[in-house]
Amino acid sequence: MSQLQSKRDFLLLFLKGAGMGAADVVPGVSGGTIAFITGIYARLLNAIKSINLDALTLLKREGLKATWQYIDGTFLVTLFAGLLTSAASLAKLITYLLEHHKLLVWSFFFGLIIASFIYVAKQVKSWDAKTIISCFFGALFAFAVTSLSPAEANPQWWFYFLAGAIAICAMILPGISGSFILLLLGMYGHVLTAVTEKQFSLIALFLVGCVVGLMVFSRFLSWLLSRFEQLTFALLAGFLVGSLNLLWPWKEVLSTYTNSKGIEKPLMQQNIMPTEFALLTGQDPMTLVCISLAVTGLVLILAIEKLTD
């Protein structure tokens, strides 16, 4: 019976990792948000933080088994197996959906982020002046970041490492999308291409950068949560609110750029109402469908929260 329970736990953890991977592929949605709402966020930070010099000393003194338990190795391997499997398998699908059904995708994730904000905000025990200011600052920062224009890089090999180190910091923060950071760096398309075309050397450079960034930033974030838990939760809630700016489905393209493959992409955009979208683009804003998908995303996250309580 315990073995069956263990297998079920492994499967659930793998699926949580898969959810993180799926979220990280989408510019605007953070894998850290999925980790947070599925109840593994603190464990993930602690496991990553435990990969340190003490673990190396333990390996020399007591061997692999003790070290594996110390770093929560089974948890990390199972989670990241789900994350990498999902990210690799969904890269083409997400790219296709964003290209051909953008309104529907952004609407669904808009609902996800609203529900995620509700969940994170509930972690704040008392909304006083300090936590409100922290939340406001987080929202302002996320809004500013998501208002920046994406660049288009022609990267050298080392830039894949740097991009991984920077983007992973956002990937483990609820509300700040690592994929959008890659967009700002001009690396989103290049990384997706490396994954879909199996350019293993570039993928390896990106992953090594992710590992280095993860080791450094997870310690800082863990320190914040241990010293300033309530202010940090309020800040993270603000990140989620601010990121809604990016996920608003209906946008007017103000200017475009041509990427390295000769494809025209939006550069500057502004949020508009569905009626304005219909007039400007001549396209059906699918308002009711979009609202329904947003509600579906909202209900889905709240349901996951109940199941993981």
TrEMBL record:
In terms of superkingdom, the source organism counts as Bacteria
Keywords associated with the record: Membrane, Transmembrane, Transmembrane helix
Name the chain's protein: DUF368 domain-containing protein
Q: Tell me where the transmembrane regions lie.
A: 74-97, 103-120, 132-151, 157-188, 200-225, 231-248, 286-304
What InterPro entries would the database entry show?
VCA0040-like
Q: Which Pfam families match?
A: VCA0040-like
PANTHER family in UniProt: INTEGRAL MEMBRANE PROTEIN, POLYPRENYL-PHOSPHATE TRANSPORTER
Higher taxonomy: Bacteria, Pseudomonadati, Pseudomonadota, Gammaproteobacteria, Alteromonadales
